[in-house]
Every structure is written in C-alpha cells, then in structure tokens.
Amino acid sequence: MLILYTTLAINAMLGRIDDLLIGVSAVLISLLWVPIALNFFSTDETKKYMAKEKLKNATIGTIIYVMAISGVIYTVFNYVVTGSI
Fold it and tell me: Domain range holding 44?
C-alpha cells in the first residue's frame, strides 16, 4: 500500500513539473516572438522588412525548440546512431 501511494505521489509530482515546464516554455517562446510581431505590424517599412527577415529565423528556432522538447530530435539521432527507434 505504501509503495502504491508513493508511486501515485511521484507520478502526480512529475505531472505538475511537466505542466510547469510546458507553461514556462510557452511564456519564453511568446516573449521571444513579441518584438517580431511589434515590428511586423509597424508603419515603418524598414522595421517591417527586418521583421520579415527575423520571421524565418524565429520560425526555424521555434520548430527546433519544439522538436527538442517533444523528443523528436532524440528519436531521430537515436535512429541514426543505433538503427532502431
């Protein structure tokens, strides 16, 4: 009974930590996108052009970040190195 309770408590704790990390990641990504969005909707043409340049880099960076967090990059590298998933 004690082992079951301990297991359930650890699973709940890990679930809360997972939710916290997802929330922090979402806040970080949104904070990094704010300057690009502000410049993208600016009336100044040079700011719009610079925002379009940064948009590509930010999109690629966000995709890589999401792939790293979700484990896709680990799975791909594991497949390349070991030949199995």
Answer: 2-82
67 by Cβ neighbours in 10 Å (0-12 / 13-18 / 19+) ranks as: middle
Give residue 13's pLDDT band: very low, low, confident or very high (50, 70, 90). very high
pTM of the complete model: 0.63
Residue 43 is given by DSSP the state S
Cα–Cα distance for residue pair 67/16, rounded to 1 Å: 21
Report the distance separating Cα 81 and Cα 79, nearest Å: 6
Length of the chain: 85
Q: pLDDT (tens digit, 9 = 90+) per residue, 37-65?
A: 899 888 889 988 899 889 998 999 889 88
Count: domains in the chain: 1
Rg (CA), the chain: 20
